[in-house]
């Protein structure tokens, strides 16, 4: 009897002694995905811009996601600029076309809770041009043609778990823009804060 108790005690100690090591990376791996639609309100130049877009990503261990997003301006915003005419430069007003997107990295805090938050950053590029305008008197490399710029946009969202497959996120972001070279438009005209609403559907 005593031998049996001693053997049982030895096995229990040995089991505890060989428990799994603590590691920086989790030993269990889970994978999910999501896709969604987003709308945002921001400032473009001196006017209010309405943006619409899509985003999606691969969710790793419920805590991180690696994905992409794309956003475009959907309302008309006018900029004053000058265009070449046969008699010389002519001041005019043209409507802006704007779109940008890139890769997105997101950290998800307490995704199991009804209300939780995410912090993300999007790194990518955008394009800006004037709508329905073609410069017939411009050279091959005119600053009235469409221009490509660099964009960096960090974002913080409060997320509500509507169901196991649906999330609603309300957030705030700030758009950093660099290297804009479209006549009449500066970097500061495209930089700015945005309020964003996102609906996500997927396997979280």
CATH topology: Porin
Q: How many distinct helices?
A: 2
Give the biggest beta sheet.
8 strands, antiparallel, barrel
Number of domains: 1
Q: Which architecture name does CATH use?
A: Beta Barrel
Shape: elongated
CATH class: Mainly Beta
Low-confidence stretches: 14-18
The helix content is under 10%
Terminal Cα separation, in Å? 52 Å
Instruction: Give the radius of gyration.
Output: 26 Å
- Strand order, biggest sheet? 1-2-3-5-6-7-8-9
Helix and strand composition category: mainly beta
Overview of the molecule:
Mean pLDDT is 85; it is low at 14-18. Strands 1-2-3-5-6-7-8-9 form an eight-stranded antiparallel beta barrel. The relative contact order is 0.18. The protein has 204 residues and is mainly β. The protein is elongated, with a radius of gyration of 26 Å. The chain has a single domain (29-203), classed as Porin (Beta Barrel), CATH 2.40.160.20. The longest helix is centred in the first third of the chain and has 16 residues, at 2-17. Strand 1 and strand 2 (47-60) form a beta hairpin. It contains two helices and nine strands, in the order H-E-E-E-E-E-E-E-E-H-E.
Lay out the secondary structure.
Elements lengths: L1 H16 L13 E14 L2 E14 L3 E10 L4 E8 L2 E22 L5 E16 L16 E15 L4 E13 L8 H4 L1 E12 L1
Antiparallel strand pairs: 1-2, 1-9, 2-3, 3-5, 4-5, 5-6, 6-7, 7-8, 8-9
